[in-house]
Amino acid sequence: MEIDSTGWPASPARNRAAQPGPPKRASREGGCLCVSAAAFPCASMRVKGARRRISQPTAAGGRAAFVPPALPRTTVLAAIWMLAFAIRCLYLWQIAHAPFYDLRLGDADAYDAWARRIAAGDWIGQGVFYQAPLYPYLLALLYRTLGDGVTIVRIVQAMFGATSCALLATAAASFVGETPAVIAGVFLAVYPPAIFLDGLLEKSAFVTFFTVLLLWSVSMPPTGMTARRWLGAGAALGLLVLTRENALLLMLPLLLWIVLVPMPRRARSRAAAALAVGCLAILLPVGVRNLVAGGGFHLTTAQFGPNFYIGNHTGASGTYDSLTVGHGSAADEQADARRLAEQGAGRPLTASEVSAFWSNRAWSEIRAQPMAWIRLLARKAALTFNAAEIADTETLDVYAEWSSLLRALRPFDFGVLLGLAALGTVLTASSWRRLWLLYAIAATYAASVVLFYVFARYRFPIAPVLMILAAAGMVQAARLAAGRQVRRLAPALAAAAGAVVLAHLPLENARASRAMHYADIGAAMAKDPNRASQAMEFYQRALGEAPEMPAAQFGVGTLLARMGRPSDAIAHYESTVQAWPEYNEAHYNLGLALAAVGRQQESAEQLQESVRLRPDDVEARLALAKVMIGLQRPDLALAQYEDTLARQEDNVKALVGSGVALTQLGRSREAIERYLRALKLTPDDVEAHNNLGYTLATEGRLDEALPHFERALALNPDDANARRNLAQAREVLRWQR
Predict the structure, then answer these.
(1) pLDDT-derived band at 568, boundaries 50, 70, 90
(2) With contact defined as beta carbons under 8 Å apart, do 200 and 394 qualify?
(3) Which of 187, 296, 458, 551 is deepest in the core (most CB within 10 A)?
(4) Is 652 contained in some domain?
């Protein structure tokens, strides 16, 4: 078997070029065959030294010894790194002026809180991991060494992003040659989604780095891979899996690569074993930690089942659909997944059982409507290769409003990249034996995305592979164009144009994504009382993009209620309830707003609906009971209090409230017992002291009531009710004496 200039097995096209006959495009130099680019479209690697490589002594078994391909010069790689880092720093400088620059939204907030716990010493944590764990641990290390400022985090991620660009160029050189390799590195340096993701306060920068590290690890032909290199490839895959769990499927094309490439059986076994050992060396400690801390052995996380259901349930959209309407955070998803699964099973469940519950439910719905599921898979495949950057929380478009750099580069989107990759795939078709691993990696990873649901940052690991193919296509297209070989170039250009057109079909509403991002910014700002006006501004931006958006309507209503304007909030809550009738928080907030303006009966109706939707919502039950007290329905109020105490026997609000209901029902002795239980738990509860004093007074026990009135007033001198009760008690005692 011949070895080409990269050390990979030569393609049939190259072997044919070495045979006699009119079609060959080759020349002889010193007895060595030098194939031109026209004969071998992907041979952009320098052919210099080919004579020396082919004539080297053979390895055992007669196979030619592997000689590493030429790589881009160190100065070129350094230039790529500096270009990428400079672009990312310029981008960070521009977005630093955005009012949301310091905010951590969605997963970023969860990772920050997790990293702070780790940095504070909680290195093990509790329970089976629900989110990929590597990023918060890296973040905690950064917090302990350099600080927790958002700028520090973003600069470090920019450095990793720049390193990914240089590393991609190094990997690409082994696949397609030096010149295309440099172009591939530059592509990643200037690719807008890459710049955007490297600047987010979440794990995407490290996902890119570990993806490219894996590509570099397997860029050598198998015959040139040492045991250490196989171990490194496995470790790179393991690190990628700890940031993107679905990447574990990439083990399949890597093992297939080992199986199909000609090598001795023993060497093949050693390669597969080393690859597996390298991966397990990273993942096994996580599995052991999950077993010890959470009681379940999971190599990464326990969210397979919920994620599979979210992406494949009946009526799924192909993107994210929360398990409970209105909930989108990882914490909400984890809590909802457990709560709903345990309600369905009727018993407490382990993390493994929760995951299995959702997996089984998804498969049940798939079996019930298989054709609908096939159509859903087709839609998810289309979304995976669509130009739209489908966002879960933060969108490229919103950041581009504050970055002229991002706006200038925006035309270079995923659709254009896909078109260039299609160009490269056609023009390098004769080299498929050398490149098929890239095809397999991209296809397998895309399938892993389609298996669940689609976000732009989830599909991003496909991009570096596409960049290698795109770079090879551009170089070869330039050569064909210079040689006016239109017939060979035309099919590739047609494929590229077709890919670009298909990728830009409007499958998703970009305005809806921007609206959600604005609403999330508003929600984050609303947590700070000093930023209420800014929060309102972003909520209004969201409504400008999507006037009926439930999340924004709910946010505006909540903000108005906090400002003491419940009457203004009601219309926004009603709009939310109309759009999201299953959102119990909207019914709850609407009920509170109605109660605040005196519409007690309507308030009770909304709170009853909230309790129906979430029977375990203690706050909704307490609010409903309080409204029932106001409606002079102590029997209905007591039922809500009793249900709450059955769930939380030490709930002080329920103890005090039930005391009020019992007093109204004439069951004073039971009421006194409830107040005493509450005061045993919280001795300084003003309401418990005042209500206990009142009930004791109605029983004629004024001497016992007086100290409780005095204590209530001492705890809260502004409590007019306690002051009035104290005055009346003293007056009665004075007359009695």
Answers:
(1) very high
(2) yes
(3) 187
(4) no
Q: At a CB cut-off of 8 Å and minimum separation 6, what does 285 contact?
A: none
**493 and 244 Cβ atoms separated by less than 8 Å:** no
- Say yes or no: 30 and 172 in one domain: no
- Predicted pLDDT at 68: 54
What is the rounded CA–CA span in Å between residue 365 and residue 609? Answer: 28
Percent over 90 (pLDDT), the chain = 79
**32 and 149 in a common domain:** no
Distance CA 20, CA 360 (A): 62
Residue with tokens 């082994």: 174
Tell me if 140 is assigned to some domain: yes
- State phi, psi for 396 to the nearest 5 degrees: -60, -40
The H or E element that residue 34 is part of is strand 32-35
Name the least confident of 226-240, 404-418, 671-685, 704-718.
704-718
The tokens describing 571, both together, are: 């219309």
Spell out the residues 6+ positions from residue 533 whose beta carbon is closer than 8 angstroms to its own: none
User: Exposed e or buried b for every residue in 615-649, given b needs 16+ CB within 10 A?
Assistant: eebbebbbbbbbbbbeeebbebbbbbbebbbeeee
Residue 265 lies in a domain: yes
Residue 250: pLDDT over 90: yes
The whole-angstrom separation of Cα 408 and Cα 395 is: 16
Contact indicator for 279, 241 with CB cutoff of 8 Å = yes
Q: For the whole model, what pTM was predicted?
A: 0.86
Domain span including residue 28: 12-62
**404-439 pLDDT, tens digit each:** 999 999 999 999 999 999 999 999 999 998 899 999
